[in-house]
């Protein structure tokens, strides 16, 4: 695994979504801020003190869940932690992708560095070493209720830290101990409290949500490009984006999108004035600021909640050295993430919904301003983009099913001790799938609008839409005859999700 030599210093300042993406996907090196190491050490010393005093503390000298009233003597404290990890590693289904697992490890490291978990610094440093040397635990996607933390999936991470379980190294799936050995990372024998500290947290749902939110924020930029290009080739009415309209309904997202469309189409020879061709456009064109803007406002709220969560401590119990106390609370409960993951699902699904409606207008000869039917000049012999629209319609319909909220569900567990759970990890996984589907729809719209631009003359495009057209043509050629397109859709999605491409796109916007 090739690492980027640039560093993300964990513990020196709050992590951002971009920090997580740089480590998870761009493989930046991770280092621990020196000032946090002392906090971790003091917290561990406090745990040792509690053990010496034989204090009754949940998860330290007691069992877990319904067994919280069962006392565990000090001499069995280490075995308790090992048993915890082995018994809780009950994840099922396909494993998470490498970027998600790397994000999980990073977020767990960051939470532990606050010094409220009682874990040894050595364990945290081992996790950092795994990131930097490319050991990626196999973590099944299913099995978390999203309360008491992401217990099952995080246990699969802890297994590899112990030299057990399974992991990927240099692209090969293997025994976790072997992966650690090949990478030159020494496994850790867990001591009192450490197993619980590793698995009692919301880092799985939050890692999935962080990457999905980052992708959705960039998607919101891309669909402003695609909608501007579509509106332009359909000779849209520019008056709908006049700032006067949006000043008197001053939602931030709505105003931003209207400004973006106006900027992207500046200098266009295709946009029209009110009543020049038609008085007003269909909603999929005219209401882009209102629809995209509402999703943007939602995404900003989701972003803010995620940044709080990735810089929070979500263990139980929590150790407060300065106050000389240990508190059993509920910070592990995933409800704050569960709700915003459902919100993310809806916000991203709506960006895809309206994009598909614009694709329909591009290919439908009754709606597309005299463009060739299905954007092919040899209709009949060629089907053009007929089935591309089918694919987009399929994706948005799938999204509608996936957008049903997970957070309204709950099921009791641990003999009704844990009687309300968040289902936040299910919500995060669904949101990530919806975002990916939405990218596919946006790619189809960009592909379609760029082809339509060929018939209207790319030289007639606005300043920003010309950039979007060129971006598409850089990766996808114009081919008039029927040809295989799915590879081009996939290529556009890959390029749109690239960090550098996303940055360049943002530079074209307000």
TrEMBL record:
<dbReference type="InterPro" id="IPR008948">
    <property type="entry name" value="L-Aspartase-like"/>
</dbReference>
<dbReference type="InterPro" id="IPR005921">
    <property type="entry name" value="HutH"/>
</dbReference>
<dbReference type="Pfam" id="PF00221">
    <property type="entry name" value="Lyase_aromatic"/>
</dbReference>
<comment type="pathway">
    <text>Amino-acid degradation; L-histidine degradation into L-glutamate; N-formimidoyl-L-glutamate from L-histidine: step 1/3.</text>
</comment>
<dbReference type="InterPro" id="IPR022313">
    <property type="entry name" value="Phe/His_NH3-lyase_AS"/>
</dbReference>
<dbReference type="InterPro" id="IPR001106">
    <property type="entry name" value="Aromatic_Lyase"/>
</dbReference>
<keyword id="KW-0963">Cytoplasm</keyword>
<comment type="similarity">
    <text>Belongs to the PAL/histidase family.</text>
</comment>
<dbReference type="GO" id="GO:0004397">
    <property type="term" value="F:histidine ammonia-lyase activity"/>
</dbReference>
<keyword id="KW-0456">Lyase</keyword>
<feature type="modified residue" description="2,3-didehydroalanine (Ser)">
    <location>
        <position position="148"/>
    </location>
</feature>
<dbReference type="InterPro" id="IPR024083">
    <property type="entry name" value="Fumarase/histidase_N"/>
</dbReference>
<feature type="cross-link" description="5-imidazolinone (Ala-Gly)">
    <location>
        <begin position="147"/>
        <end position="149"/>
    </location>
</feature>
<keyword id="KW-0369">Histidine metabolism</keyword>
<protein>
    <recommendedName>
        <fullName>Histidine ammonia-lyase</fullName>
        <ecNumber>4.3.1.3</ecNumber>
    </recommendedName>
</protein>
């Amino acid at each position: 695994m090739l690492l980027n030599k640039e560093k993300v210093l964990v513990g020196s300042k709050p992590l951002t979504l971009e920090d997580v993406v740089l480590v998870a996907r761009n493989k930046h090196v991770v280092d621990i801020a020196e000032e946090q190491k002392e906090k971790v050490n003091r917290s561990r010393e406090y745990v040792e003190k509690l053990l010496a005093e034989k204090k009754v503390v949940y998860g330290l000298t007691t069992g877990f869940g319904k067994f919280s009233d069962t006392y565990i003597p000090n001499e069995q404290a280490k075995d308790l932690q090992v048993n915890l990890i082995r018994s809780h590693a009950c994840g099922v289904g396909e494993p998470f992708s490498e970027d998600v697992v790397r994000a999980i490890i990073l977020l767990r490291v960051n939470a532990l560095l606050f010094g409220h978990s009682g874990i040894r610094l050595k364990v945290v440093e081992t996790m950092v070493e795994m990131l930097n040397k490319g050991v990626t635990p196999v973590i099944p996607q299913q099995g978390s209720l999203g309360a008491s933390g992401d217990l099952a999936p995080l246990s699969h991470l802890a297994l590899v830290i112990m030299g057990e379980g399974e992991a990927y190294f240099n692209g090969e799936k293997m025994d976790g101990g072997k992966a650690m050995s090949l990478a030159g990372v020494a496994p850790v024998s867990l001591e009192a409290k450490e197993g619980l500290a590793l698995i009692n947290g919301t880092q799985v749902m939050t890692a999935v949500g962080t990457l999905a939110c980052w992708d959705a924020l960039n998607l919101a930029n891309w669909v402003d490009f695609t909608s501007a290009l579509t509106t332009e080739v359909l000779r849209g009415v520019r008056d709908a984006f006049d700032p006067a309209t949006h000043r008197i309904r001053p939602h931030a997202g709505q105003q931003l999108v209207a400004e973006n469309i106006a900027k992207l189409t500046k200098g266009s020879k295709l946009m029209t004035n009110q009543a020049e061709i038609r008085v007003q456009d269909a909603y999929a064109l005219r209401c882009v600021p209102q629809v995209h803007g509402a999703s943007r406002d939602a995404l900003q709220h989701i972003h803010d909640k995620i940044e709080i969560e990735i810089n929070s401590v979500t263990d139980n119990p929590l150790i407060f050295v300065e106050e000389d106390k240990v508190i059993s609370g509920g910070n592990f409960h995933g409800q704050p993430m569960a709700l915003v993951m459902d919100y993310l699902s809806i916000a991203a699904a709506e960006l895809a919904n309206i994009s598909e409606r614009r694709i329909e207008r591009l290919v439908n000869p009754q709606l597309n301003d005299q463009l060739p039917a299905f954007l092919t000049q040899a209709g009949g012999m060629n089907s053009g983009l007929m089935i591309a629209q089918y694919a987009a319609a399929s994706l948005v319909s799938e999204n509608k099913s996936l957008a049903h909220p997970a957070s309204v569900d709950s099921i009791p567990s641990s003999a009704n001790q844990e009687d309300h759970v968040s289902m936040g990890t299910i919500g995060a996984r669904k949101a990530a799938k919806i975002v990916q589907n939405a990218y596919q729809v946006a790619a189809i719209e960009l592909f379609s609008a760029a082809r339509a631009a060929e018939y209207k003359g790319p030289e007639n495009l606005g300043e920003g839409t010309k950039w979007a057209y060129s971006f598409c043509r850089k990766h996808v050629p114009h081919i008039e005859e029927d040809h295989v397109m799915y590879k081009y859709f996939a290529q556009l999605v890959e390029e749109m999700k690239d960090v550098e491409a996303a940055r360049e796109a943002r530079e074209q916007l307000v």
